[in-house]
TrEMBL record:
Record GO terms (molecular function): lyase activity; metal ion binding
Keyword hit for Metal-binding: yes
Species of origin: Streptomyces cyaneochromogenes
Keywords associated with the record: Lyase, Metal-binding
Protein known as: Sirohydrochlorin chelatase
Length: 306
């Protein structure tokens, strides 16, 4: 933050007779410097010399680009949601280069985004909520096939910022922030996620469910739209059998799509909207970026990127 200039009393301040000359001299010096730089790029035989290497960026500028890697969806709402989320990231950090790449289904595809970056440094942050094949294989392989000096961050979850977003979305859907003990004993939440065959994905989702349960004070059961068990309907039936009749479905999806819609339709009471453009999502993307920038590159990573 720069200090503001002290207020000036215009009625008592006299004009500086040398101000105009100083301003003119400053402009002429800038023009001369620019001309000298351009002339230095031309050799004696008239051919242009190669550009000198770039000067390291000043503090406050970012040598690593941020590439947010989304999965992709046939639902047009997904692309518009992700684009709006990236706009929020840019608002939080205006000088950071922010790019989008998709694993499939939507453009730009990640390989095309990386090709446009050339050989610069980039941090790839998956817009994915848990570990799985895409983070462990797909994204690193796409990065390795490009010229970009890329490092891949981990999944967004579990993290307290995700719990903040989930809680807000539930309250927006009608969840009571205060309830009596009788109501609490009959209430619960199903955390509806996409699902994966990777067992670590279930571990991550279960940890998020545990964090959300601590925040809400009621049971939170992770359930899945596909691939993994239990399914959302199975989790709802299990909770009903245990006397939990006031059950909300918390949408653990980054954007609208088929799975989010199907899970919401199964809700016996209320269903929250996907995490979408919640401010905590933009902050979490930047947090994962900052973590990777601050993490020293190992010798193995340098050999892999060479």
């Amino acid at each position: 933050m720069t200090a503001s200039n002290p207020p000036r009393d215009e009625s008592t301040t006299l004009p500086d007779p040398g101000a105009h000359l100083d301003s003119t001299a400053h402009i002429m010096n800038r023009i001369s410097s620019q001309l000298a730089r351009q002339l230095s790029l031309v050799s004696l035989d008239g051919r242009r010399r190669p550009e000198p290497p770039p000067v390291p960026e000043r503090p406050g500028r970012y040598p690593h680009a941020l590439v947010v890697v989304a999965h992709g969806s046939r639902d047009p709402r997904a692309l518009s949601t992700v684009s709006a989320l990236l706009d929020k990231v840019r608002e939080l950090r205006p000088t950071l280069p922010v790019h989008l790449g998709h694993i499939e289904l939507n453009e730009p595809l990640l390989p095309d985004t990386l090709a446009a970056l050339g050989d610069r440094e980039a941090i790839l942050v998956p817009l994915l909520l848990s570990r799985g094949y895409h983070i462990k294989r797909d994204i690193p392989e796409m990065a390795a096939e490009s010229r970009v000096r890329a490092r891949v961050a981990g999944a967004l979850g579990p993290h307290p910022l995700l719990v903040e977003a989930l809680y807000t979305r539930l309250v927006e859907a009608g969840w009571r922030t205060r309830m009596d003990e009788d109501t609490r004993r009959t209430s619960a939440v199903v955390l509806a996620a996409a699902g994966s065959r990777d067992p670590e994905s279930k571990v991550d989702t279960s940890r998020t469910a545990h964090l959300l349960a601590d925040r809400l004070g009621v049971p939170v059961i992770p359930a899945y739209a596909t691939t993994a068990a239990p399914t959302v309907p199975d989790a709802l039936r299990d909770l009903a059998a245990r006397g939990r009749t006031r059950v909300a479905v918390a949408s653990y999806f980054t954007a609208p799509g088929r799975f989010a819609t199907e899970c919401a339709q199964a809700a016996p009471w209320i269903a929250s909207a996907p995490l979408g453009t919640h401010p905590a999502m933009a902050r979490l993307l930047l947090h994962r970026y900052d973590q990777m920038v601050a993490t020293p590159v190992t010798a193995a990573q340098e050999l892999a990127s060479a």
